[in-house]
Amino acid sequence: MSLRLRTISREEHLAFIRSLPSASHMQVPSWADVKAEWRNESIGWFDEQDRMVGAGLVLYRQLPKVKRYLAYLPEGPVIDWFDPNLEGWLRPMLDHLKGQGAFTVKMGPPVIIRRWQAETIKNAISGGEAKRLRDIEADWYEPRAIDTADRLRRMGWQQGEDGGAGFGDVQPRYVYQVPLANRSLDDILKGFNQLWRRNIKKAEKAGVEIVQGGYDDLPVFHQLYLETAERDKFIPRPLSYFQRQWRALTAEDPNRMRLYLAYHEGDPLAGTTMITVGQHVWYSYGASTVHKREVQPNNAIQWRMLRDAYALGATVYDLRGISDTLDETDHLFGLIRFKVGTGGQAAEYLGEWDFPLNKLLHKALDMYMQRR
């Protein structure tokens, strides 16, 4: 099959995304408005009958003082990654992006290599022998993913380092997901571990109320988020970022982004944001206070979001990034410990890949990023 690639309108792009069961929320047209500091472009692949068969959101970041760009397709593009003629998809893209002034291209194939069930992970942690997810036998493999990686290498694509914890890529390589398809809510709740179920009951008994908020409630969420950032020692995003995200995503689809807040006796204790594209729902941002932590608002808010995802017809509830560490002394271990309690699965993606169109500028960017 011979493919052509061209710039497409946002309307064409959105219509293609809506024709699919799902795609990454970072590959919908409105994500370009969230990342307003980047130049953006929607691109589409067309077959011999001029039918659109693939799409991608490209974000362009300009180098200082030079009209050359890093072209980034986060968790994309949305193409047939298992096509034996993968070069027939990616070569036209590289040619197009080079023509747009890109000196290097970064992309994140939305391809899962392997999965580990919660029970497998719990057994590995209690056994104490494996220090990382990658050290234990997975419960499921996608053999075509290895072929895809081999094809990318042969084309000259370079795989980014994972930083030793699965966080070297811009987007997380390891995520935690709860499958919802062909399961009842009772089945899903029974899949939670005893601590999660007890905490959900405790929150309910204590009178924790979970409400779905709106744009005007974002400052309440942001105050909780600032406290979380100070406690966990990360640099927080400003309130304006969440306000821009809300405006952009909900303008495209009223259900694209939701806000949830947990209250107890009028006190806001936890807040989360949720993003939906087709049958895939993501827990995006979370925040909480240490005040009244004993009433378990975090478990309660996750259970509410998961039930709402189920009601929306989602087939997967995605808790996003985890480290792959199984070492209980590692400060990142808490991420996987909390999420394993949902009884879902850890999944490893193919990771992010770079194609240097100008090796000198690519190397300069590499050195700059390492210094940061």
TrEMBL record:
What InterPro entries does UniProt report for this protein, alphabetically?
A: Acyl_CoA_acyltransferase, FEMABX, PG_Glycine_Bridge_Synth
- By its UniProt entry, which PROSITE patterns does this protein fall under? FEMABX (PS51191)
Whether Ligase counts among this entry's keywords is: no
Q: Name one GO biological process term.
A: regulation of cell shape
Q: Which GO terms describe its molecular function?
A: aminoacyltransferase activity
Q: Which UniProt keywords apply?
A: Acyltransferase, Cell shape, Cell wall biogenesis/degradation, Peptidoglycan synthesis, Transferase
Provide the family line.
Belongs to the FemABX family.
Identify this protein by name.
Lipid II:glycine glycyltransferase (Peptidoglycan interpeptide bridge formation enzyme)
Q: Which organism is it from?
A: Streptacidiphilus jiangxiensis
